[in-house]
Description:
By secondary structure, this protein is of the alpha/beta class. It has one domain (7-270): Vaccinia Virus protein VP39 (Rossmann fold), CATH 3.40.50. It contains 8 helices and 8 strands; from the N terminus they run βαβαβαββααβαβαβα. It has helices spanning 13-16, 49-63, 82-90, 144-149, 159-163, 192-202, 218-225, 237-270, and strands at residues 7-9, 25-30, 67-77, 94-102, 119-126, 170-172, 208-211, 229-233. Strands 1-8-7-2-3-5-4-6 form an 8-stranded mixed β-sheet, sandwiched between helices. The longest helix has 34 residues, at 237-270. Bound molecules: S-adenosylmethionine. S-adenosylmethionine (SAM) binds at residues 12-14, 31, 33, 40, 42, 44, 186, 188-190, 213, 215-216, 218, 233-236, 239.
Amino acid sequence: MSDWRNRVFCEDALAGMARIPDASVDLIIADPPYGLGKDYGNDSDKLDADAYLQWMQQWIDAALPKLKSNGSLYIFLTWRYSPEIFVMLKKRMTMINEIVWDRRVPSMGGSTRRFSSVHDTIGFFANARDYYFDLDAVRIPYDAETKKARSRSIFVGAKWLEIGYNPKDVWSVSRLHREHRERADHPTQKPLEIVTRMIKASCPPGGVVLDPFMGSGTTAVAARACGRDFTGFELNPDYCALIRSRLDALDAETAVSGIEQQEKLRASSAS
Length: 271
Ligand SMILES: C[S@@+](CC[C@H](N)C(=O)[O-])C[C@H]1O[C@@H](n2cnc3c(N)ncnc32)[C@H](O)[C@@H]1O
């Protein structure tokens, strides 16, 4: 086993990227600081616009060679800098989708001089035409009511009705509010549902996902739960500890469900 897979490197992604061999990762999921002044316990989100865009270009240049030729990249952005960053990436990769993450923010007052922004902009880019993409792994099953409504003879036996639908490019998934069971102590933690979809669609089983800005470790947790490897960087040591504790909790959960499974099997074979 290589010494960079399934590791959380508590260091600057720019400095650490040399640890990852070129053309070795299947997928990059990047959730960099947004240039909006958020507090990650460091100054990483305090750059002015020019310095921010320059830094974005720097880590993109360092990260892209790590991708395999059929690899892809998802990048979480906001409307504020997504136009500039999409242009940067389009010079190097093929843009496959702009995904809108509707964070399902409830309607409460909001801005008075503009429309309230309630979405994240996610760019999905691929290295080449033959990029890995497993749509079947992320199809959304039709509910019983919809299936029933499509019971006319022209729909009978329709494969798409059985295998579920394409999730489309607007993903409506609740943000992790304070009481959410998944919520950890990180200001911009992403929901596992979103990151899991990216991994299942764009990283083959047993493959490896690179997350240069791990935060609370959502990519690492989702990758391990899906049978993929991960690697990545995080500047803040408290967040590095948080990632390790989320991974430990997942391992403990997996062990318990394995034991329960074995007990059920034993009980059913004894009866
Ligand atoms: C938007 S958050 C990532 C959140 C993460 N996706 C999650 O679900 O928890 C960005 C993270 O990048 C970290 N960061 C900022 N600059 C960094 C750098 N140069 N190298 C490594 N990590 C960095 C910040 O400390 C912060 O935790």
